[in-house]
């Protein structure tokens, strides 16, 4: 069957017809030529199986001549009559299939470990986690796997990496941290990372979900034992000599800074503020006092803001409420610490606040250069000066203030959960694991019990 639309008629229609006009064929039902803003096209109108009127484009004019377009229209109408899928349904099915294939291809490209890390996970970490850059740097230890698909990674890959890392002297604790960060990324890629929903997983499951590091060898066990002993020693309560040295060091450092300022004012810089008139000539001094009186982490103190101090006029109590930065990225609801402010701590904060004009907002300790939060390790050089002036051990960590605070409370037999809430732990697990240890005096007493029983028995015969 031929179409009634001739080549000449089609050309004339294309050249002269107004937009949205249609030229119908009298021989083939529903077959027509349509003019629109973008050009001219061959179309077919028909009723589908549900008697719904449909319109489908066959092709463009003049790319298709009238008889070519008509032949397609006849074939499509024949298929509709035989109960086959109508042209529009076929076209929609093909389009849907193509979209699925494109999505699958798009998804498959992110199965590649390095591509997923660079394009998806690293930006996600940096945008959503304070420690995002640090975590990302840990994952980069597995860059040797970046060309591999994530679902093809296996235990042999990690065992080989573990062997190389151990041989290179990397501590097992660091290895555990690096592997944990890498496994977390694989969980995210599979959509199973706890507390961090990923609605577009690219792998079905984490191939390392059941993987555990090999048991430590003899050398590693000895190393872990030494590390544990060193850490345990740091968690002990300060001796009276250490406490005295710390206070003397802080006093001497304050005097040293004041003396330097007196010299500067005397020799050409009289415009500088007189530090003999203020309680703290340097920010590190109240910073250190807060550490010894609260057991806060250095990162906790750095992040403190004046607006976190609140006074309750009904009970006369002041509370410092804050979320430790270390815990902000853990869990859906970050840990909140409510630290009571009284006595020496209250006096120190009041003096420091008054010294700065009684601000009610902003960082309690801020950089004089930038006006922002002080740098992460800014306190370390000042701590070194204090240790030198106080004749303290060179390996005495500033973090020992926290250990001493917790150990002191443990020694006083306060409940572990109460201590945990005060120092910003999620529960009492860490307190019990690291701070509840038997003192040497207690051990000596236990060891002597059996000997005393023998001595009493022998003496009584």
UniProtKB/TrEMBL annotation:
Residues 258-448 form the Tyr recombinase domain. Pfam families: Arm-DNA-bind_3 (PF13356), Phage_integrase (PF00589). GO terms for molecular function: DNA binding. The keyword Transcription regulation does not apply. Gene3D superfamilies: 1.10.150.130, Integrase, DNA-binding domain, Intergrase catalytic core. The keyword DNA-binding applies. Keywords: DNA integration, DNA recombination, DNA-binding. One of its GO terms (biological process) is DNA integration. Belongs to the 'phage' integrase family. PANTHER family: PROPHAGE INTEGRASE, PROPHAGE INTEGRASE INTS-RELATED. This is Integrase family protein. It comes from Alteromonas pelagimontana.
């Amino acid at each position: 069957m031929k179409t009634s639309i001739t080549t000449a008629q089609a050309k004339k229609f294309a050249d002269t017809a107004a937009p949205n006009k249609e030229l119908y064929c009298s021989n083939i039902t529903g077959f027509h030529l349509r003019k629109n803003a973008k050009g001219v096209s061959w179309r077919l109108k028909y009723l589908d199986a549900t008697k719904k009127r449909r319109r489908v484009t066959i092709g463009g004019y003049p790319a298709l001549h009238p008889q070519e377009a008509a032949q397609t229209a006849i074939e499509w109408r024949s298929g509709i009559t035989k109960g086959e899928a109508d042209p529009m349904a076929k076209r929609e099915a093909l389009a849907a299939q193509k979209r699925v294939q494109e999505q699958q291809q798009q998804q498959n490209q992110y199965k590649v470990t390095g591509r997923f890390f660079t394009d998806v996970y690293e930006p996600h970490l940096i945008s959503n986690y304070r420690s995002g850059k640090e975590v990302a740097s840990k994952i980069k230890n597995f860059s040797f796997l970046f060309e591999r698909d994530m679902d093809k990674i296996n235990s042999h890959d990690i065992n080989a990496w573990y062997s190389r890392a151990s041989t290179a002297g990397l501590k097992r604790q660091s290895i555990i941290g690096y592997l944990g960060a890498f496994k977390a990324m694989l969980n995210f890629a599979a959509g199973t990372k706890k507390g961090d929903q990923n609605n577009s997983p690219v792998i079905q499951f984490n191939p390392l979900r059941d993987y555990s590091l090999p048991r430590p060898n003899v050398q590693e066990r000895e190393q872990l034992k030494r590390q544990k002993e060193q850490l345990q020693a740091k968690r002990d309560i300060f001796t009276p000599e250490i406490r005295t040295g710390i206070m003397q060091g802080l006093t001497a450092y304050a005097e040293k800074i004041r003396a330097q300022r007196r010299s500067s004012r005397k020799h050409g810089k009289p415009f500088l503020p007189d530090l003999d008139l203020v309680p703290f000539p340097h920010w590190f001094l109240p910073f250190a006092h807060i550490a010894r009186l609260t057991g806060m982490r250095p990162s906790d103190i750095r992040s403190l803001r004046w607006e976190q101090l609140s006074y309750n006029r009904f009970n006369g109590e002041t509370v410092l409420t804050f979320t430790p930065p270390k815990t902000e990225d853990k869990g859906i609801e970050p840990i909140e610490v409510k630290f009571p402010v009284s006595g020496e701590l209250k006096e120190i904060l009041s003096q420091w606040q008054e010294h700065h004009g009684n601000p009610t907002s902003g960082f309690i300790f801020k950089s004089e250069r930038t006006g922002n939060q002080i740098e992460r390790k800014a306190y370390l050089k000042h701590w070194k000066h204090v240790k030198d002036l106080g004749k303290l051990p060179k390996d005495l960590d500033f973090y020992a203030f926290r250990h001493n605070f917790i150990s002191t409370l443990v020694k006083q037999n306060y409940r572990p959960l109460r201590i945990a809430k005060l120092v910003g732990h999620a529960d009492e697990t860490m307190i019990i694991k690291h701070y509840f240890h038997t003192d040497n005096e207690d051990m000596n007493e236990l060891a002597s019990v059996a000997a005393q029983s023998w001595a009493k028995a022998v003496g009584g015969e």
